[in-house]
Amino acid sequence: MKDFILKWYPIIIAFACLLYSVGLGLTGRTEEAQYSAHWPGTILLFTIAINQIRRL
Q1: Who's near 12: CB < 8 A, 6+ residues apart?
Q2: Is 56 helix (H, G, I), strand (E, B) or coil?
Q3: Whole-number pLDDT of residue 10
Q4: Cα–Cα distance list, 51 to 19, 44, 55 (Å)
Q5: Whole-angstrom Cα distance, residue 18 to residue 13?
Q6: Per-residue pLDDT of the chain (56 residues; tens, 9 = 90+)
Q7: Among the four 7, 11, 23, 45, which has the fewest Cβ within 10 Å?
Q8: What is this structure's pTM?
Q9: Which pLDDT score, from 0 to 100, does residue 19 have?
Q10: Angle 2-26/39-55 helices, nearest 10 degrees?
Q11: DSSP state of 29
């Protein structure tokens, strides 16, 4: 279980942020939803960058 979490935690966090953004949009808070919609992509891009740096 620990290996699974260590491997997939960025995707789990990004998915949680996506659900948060969708929830905000459904409740009518569109400005907040648009702001938080960028979080999943940013989290995944930083994860890729960090993994690339670790390989060097």
Answers
A1: 5
A2: coil
A3: 94
A4: 25, 11, 6
A5: 9
A6: 888 888 899 999 999 999 999 999 999 999 999 999 999 999 999 999 999 999 87
A7: 7
A8: 0.84
A9: 97
A10: 160
A11: -
Residues 3, 39: Cα–Cα separation, whole Å: 24
Joined together, the tokens standing for residue 49 give 């960058």
* Residue 6 and residue 28 in contact, taking contact as beta carbons nearer than 8 Å: no
| Unique residue bearing structure tokens 């939803």 | 33
* Amino acid (one-letter) located at 50: I
Please give the Cα distance from 10 to 8 (Å, whole number). 6
DSSP structural state of residue 37: T
